[in-house]
Amino acid sequence: MSIAINHTDTFPKILLHHAKTIPSHPAYREKYLGIWQETTWAQNLVQVSSFTCGLSNLGFTRGMNLAIIGDNRPRLYQAMLAAQCLGGIAVPLYQDAVATEMVHVLNDAQIGFAIVENQEQVDKLLEIKDQVPNLHTIIYEDNKGLADYVDSFLHSFDQIQRSGEVFNVDHPDFFLTEALQTEPTDLSIILYTSGTTGKPKGVSHTHQNFMRAAKEACAFDHLTYKDNILAYLPMAWVGDHLFSYAQAMAAGFTVNCPESKETVMSDLREIGPSYYFAPPRVFEGLLTQVMIRIEDAGYLKRKLFHAAMAHAKKVGTKILDGNFVSLTSRLLYGFYNLTIYGPLRNVLGISRLRVAYTAGEAIGPDLFRFYRSIGVNLKQFYGQTETCAYVCLQPDGQVKYDTVGPAAPGIEIKLADSGEVLVRGISVMAGYYNRPDATIESIDSDGYFHTGDAGVIDHDGHLRIIDRAKDVGKMADGKLFAPKYIENKLKFFPFIKEAVVFGDQRHAVMVFINIDFEAMANWAERRNISFAGYVDLASQAAVYDIIGECIDQVNADLSEDDMLSHAQIARFLILNKELDPDDDELTRTRKVRRGFISEKYAVLVDALYDNKDEQFIEIKVKFEDGRDGQISGNVAIRNAKKIGGLVR
Predict the structure, then answer these.
(1) Taking the model in full, what pTM does it have?
(2) Which end of the chain is more exposed for a tag (fewer CB within 10 A), N or C?
């Protein structure tokens, strides 16, 4: 295949560019049967070319949409690229969504072709195929368990690729002609919003939206083809598409795909990526694992760990940012780096990191400070699905715990009179798919996208996000109420997995707590506290005591906060079930659906404000096997403490 590329402004063109300039460099690594398999950029081009031709043979043409469902797999990323090479549009769906949740997206995006990872995803589509009239072709990547499936509309990835290889021989110029026809203004992907308040909307992005954002982001952090990343978060999430697809394509760096969800942490340690991103809940989970192990350690090890952490808190971030630190403090930090911080980073699989990012929701300042203090260059970025997750980036040496940084290159931000953050620039979407009405509501006549987030801009031009604009309210006395801000403080503690705060138009702040079962179970077992499961553990008095101590610390922090000192938590309860996307309490990206929870658990909210000590509740749940069930019982309610006494 003769390649002569002068422009790299679309994904197909940059594929051709990398295949020519760094042909032997790995584009993908995938863990399969315990062994890492490599695909170079030259091999990637050949495989994408074959699948593109095979897809064309099936009737996929310019302007069509291709649904993609599965875990992070090189072939699924290749299928995304193949659709774009034919002038089509990729539509990734959340792989953990139940079948009925997929119906809206498949119909809204008018999906005729779908490629899925395995039998599980095939079965989901077969279950709802009658509800998706346009769906006529399903391609599966993993053949396991599908030998007896004989439907004519089912095809294996291997079959399509082989037919494409034959087509390529007979039509050697077809792929190159198609790939070079792609234009920067062509739509490349439709990503669906999380749907916290209604049905998800399709966000349409062009090649140039993501390519320009990706190139600027790579330049910002000096990323090159020599870097590598672990791709483990949903392909349907905008963050994965920016980092594991757009930036990987822009810079040419290697994307590592773990063997399974269960092996992500061990695969992370084996790979040791130089570039990493995760939402705050992942960093919270890593810290929880650390604290569990420390609790199990001997007295001397615990003493040394806590001494090291105290020193890191004092000087770690200063050293990371290149600020002045005394020689004595540097030497002590160096000793702890050899004995504590370095081994800790290695255990977490982040010892080789040059840059790490977190986004998706606000990260607690204490959690953020912990990672930076042990030498991890963790930074925040800010953006939405509608802005390619690219609005603000934190420059090295200018990282603040309470901001998300200044506007990224190519982006303008300003605040509306209401405090809502408005964004204009290279990453703003083309519009909502087939929803011109919603597009007009979100992008004003000056081209600014209305994010729905409330924020302030400090004297350095750094943006501070307070909360979702719709969630920011006022308490009964007219003072500010920002629930997410308080929830993030609570979720710093390893025993707290989720928190839902109430207080809008109320006289006091109340909270629902979800305990982290793994961390709390470990804590309980070491104290010989017996329990039968989550429901039993969540009701234990000792568990309420430890959660109460966490809330006391949050209240102490809030008492020193000029913005929210009045919003200390008055009362709390521990829910007798975990909040779950399958029960519609969380989105697939694990964002709290606050309005739904308020309605579903109204009897508990009322009990908090009626000063009851406990409340009986019956809750409908959906089990993992799809059956509906019910949990019932009394939920205890406790008062929280404020400096100077009880909050009433």
Answers:
(1) 0.81
(2) C
